[in-house]
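Quick question, first post here. What does this chain look like in 3D?
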Amino acid sequence: MDLGLKDKVALVAASSKGLGKATALSLAGEGCRVTMCARGTDVLAEAAEEVRQATGAKVLEVVCDVTDGAAITAAFEKTEQELGNVDVLVVNAGGPKAGAFDDLTDDDWMEAYQLTHLSAVRMIRRALPHMRAAKWGRIVAIESSSVKQPVMNLHLSNGIRAGLVGYFKSISDELAKDNITINTVLPGLYLTDRILDNQKAIAERTGEALADRLEMIKNNIPMGRFGEPRELADMISFLASERGSYVTGAVIQVDGGTTRGNF
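> Answer (accepted):
Ran it through. Tokens below.
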């Protein structure tokens, strides 16, 4: 299936590893010119070169801390100079810290808001002028299954991500008239560094062996396995494409059936 993404410009935030990296790889494989953003210089450079070698696509790496509004602006400006205006924006960020509610301070909540919510607002605000002028744009946000089913010990993520999805839904009407779609994907359990770090912390606190804990979690996934990052990435590529042009304001689980809610 031709997704109609050849020569589109995509900016993928937090894409040096995990789900973001897989998304950059998928979009590049569909013919996009891709900007990969992350905080770590060396890991980002290695990831960008891996995507170049695998796809032959033009890939630009830009060091960017998405909690810094000036850094977001600079990432867009460099993309425009090197690749062209951004047609596809993938909103993504490392998750807020885990922890018991009583241990979370006001600073923790503010940092989580900056990382998870305000970064998305800033990226979208910066992307929209070109998308509106072009009468074409795709915004896809990688959030979490916690939007629909809160995850133990992730109070910051549970509290902030659901509100962020409300923001996406509230602007979808305004964007649709300009042929700009905005959708959210909710990954479930993928063996990314984020999931492993969270489970290691729980295992240490409870005295469980990490391997036993991961096996227990896997057995609770209806499909009986953890997700492969490419499975989420390919859904994002579809939503970013011409083929996904009639999908907007949607919140889509890509979790092997883990989330039990009807909606």
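Strands lie at 9-12, 33-38, 59-63, 88-91, 137-142, 180-187, 251-254.
Residues 191-226 form one domain.
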